[in-house]
Amino acid sequence: MTTGRKLILLAALGSAALLAGAHVFQALGYAPCKLCLWQRGPHWAAVAIGLLARAAAGPAQNLLAVSGHQDKAAMILFATLIINGGLGLTFIPRFGIQGAAMATSAAFAFEALATIVLTRRYFPAAPGRAASWSKP
To answer: 10 Å Cβ neighbour count for 101?
Structure first.
């Protein structure tokens, strides 16, 4: 993964953490001011850009499935389902459709991170990385 892509993902994760913190405080009963609500827009944009950068990393889930690690790929998808359901039950009553979006985004972020970690573990020269023989 290139340094630029790492920085994009780091910015997306930072923005996701800030948004999660803001929504947790809102769930605890602290009403956000108008400016706080307005400032969430750029963070949602950063999260969207991060998801696009993750999508550009390639079909890591398929690589796991066709290489004999389909059981691990299935476990990641099952954990993603559980996370999405649990967060949905928590966020939807409080935030409505935005809660559903938050739950789904968090579950997709988990799926992406877990898939990339496992792919890097099983395939050191996975897509997005230069093979060791190609370095000068």
So the answer is: 14
60: helix, strand or coil: helix
The per-residue DSSP string of 16-49 comes to HHHHHHHHHHHHTT-PPPHHHHHHHHHHHHHHHH
Measured CA to CA in angstroms, residue 60 lies from 63, 68, 113, 119, 123 at distances of: 5, 13, 11, 6, 10
Tokens linked to 113: 């991170």
pLDDT in tens, 17-26: 878 888 888 8
- What is the value of pTM for the model shown? 0.55
pLDDT of residue 91: 84
For 39-93, list the strands marked E by DSSP.
Answer: none
Q: Mean per-residue pLDDT for 43-55? A: 70
Rama region for 58: left / alpha / beta (φ>0; ψ in -120 to 50; rest): left
Averaged pLDDT for residues 21-49: 80
Separation CA 101–CA 91 (nearest Å): 9
